[in-house]
Amino acid sequence: MKESIYLALDFPNWQEANSFIEDNHLQGVPVKVGMELYYREGPRIIERLKQNNHKIFLDLKLHDIPTTVMRTMSVLSSLEVDMVNIHALGGSEMIQRAREGLLNGNPNFDTKLIAVTVLTSMDEQVLNNEMGIPGNLLETTVKLSSFAQKAGVDGVVCSTHEVNRVKAICGEDFITVTPGIRLVDSNVNDQKRVATPSIARKNGADYLVIGRSITQAENPKKAYEQALVEWEESTCN
Ligand code: C5P
User: Fold this and answer.
1) What integer is the mean pLDDT of 162-174?
2) What is the mean pLDDT of residues 149-168?
3) 159 CB less than 6 Å from ligand 1?
4) Which ligand 1 atom sits nearest the alpha carbon of residue 116?
5) Residues 31-41 pLDDT 10s
6) Which of 153, 209, 215, 216 gets mutated to test ligand 1 (max ligand atoms within 8 A of its CB)?
7) What is the phi/psi pair of residue 229, to 5°?
8) Residue owning the nearest CA to atom 13 of ligand 1
9) Are 214 and 193 in contact (CB under 8 A)?
10) In the chain, how many domains are there?
C-alpha cells in the first residue's frame, strides 16, 4: 500500500526535482513524471529515477494519429516504466495502436497503459459548453473508460468521484488512477474535481497522484506522510 501514492514531480528540471526529493527525504517514493520535466530532461530523467529505485508513471498523455502514437509508444516501451498514458479521446484505433507499440517495442516488460478520461481540471460546464460533449460528466467518464477498456487499456485516470462507477462497469481489476487530491487544509488551485486521499481510497481508487498538496506544503515530508496515513487508515467501501 505504500506504493499507491505517486508524487507528481512538476519541476522544471532534474536538479530541482532531485533536490526536492533529497531535502524532504522522499527517496524511493513512486513518482509521476509529466511533460514539463520529461521535455526538459528527456529519457535520462527516467534512468536516473530508476537508479534511485522510484516506481514511475510517465504522464505524457499522448493524443495523435494512431501510427504516430504506436511508434512513440514503441520508443517509450524501452524505458520500462510502470505506467504510461494516452487520451481516451484519441479513439479506439489510437488506443489499439498504442498497445501494439508497447507490446512490439518491448515484449518482455509489462508497462501498464492508462487512458486519461476527462481531465480533473474540467467540469461539466466546460465539457458541455466548450467541448460540445453533451450530458453528464460522470457518464462521459464511464463511457470513455468502457470503450478504452475494450480497445486495450489496463485502466484510466479519472477523479475520485467517478471511481465507483468506473469499477462497477469495468470491473475491480481495472486500474483507476486519481489526481485532484487535496489534503484537508490545502489549496484547490486549478483542479475542479478534488477530494482527499481518504475519500479516494473509500471510493476504491488504486493509485493517487499528488502534486502541489505535497510540493507546496510547508513541510512536504509531513504532507506525504499525512496522505499515506489517510490512505492506509481508510478502507474501500
Ligand atoms: O498539483 P496537483 O496535485 O493538482 O497535480 C496533479 C498532477 O496530476 C499534475 O501533474 C497533472 O498534470 C496530473 N494530472 C491531472 N489530471 C489528469 C491527469 C494528470 O491533474 N487527468
Assistant:
1) 97
2) 97
3) no
4) 21
5) 999 999 999 99
6) 209
7) -65, -45
8) 179
9) no
10) 1
**Whole-number average pLDDT of the chain:** 95
Residues with catalytic function? 61
Q: Whole-structure pTM over 0.85, yes or no?
A: yes
Burial degree of 88 (CB within 10 A; 0-12, 13-18, 19+): buried
Residue 1 has pLDDT above 60, yes or no: no
Ligand 1 pocket member 162 (CB < 6 A): no
What's the CATH code of the domain at 38? 3.20.20.70
**Measured from the CB, is residue 183 less than 6 Å from ligand 1?**
no
pLDDT digits (tens, 9 = 90+) for 24-33: 999 999 999 9
Residues 125 and 215: their CA atoms lie apart, in Å, by 29
Q: How far is the C-alpha of 71 from the C-alpha of 160, rounded, in Å?
A: 32
Q: Name 59's bridge partners.
A: 34
Domain limits for position 120 = 5-233
CA dihedral over 224, 160, 154, 75, signed as positive or negative: negative
Tell me the pLDDT tens digit for each residue of 186-214. Answer: 667 787 888 899 999 999 999 999 999 99
Would the CB of 200 count as within 6 Å of ligand 1?
no
How far is the C-alpha of 193 from the C-alpha of 160, rounded, in Å? 8
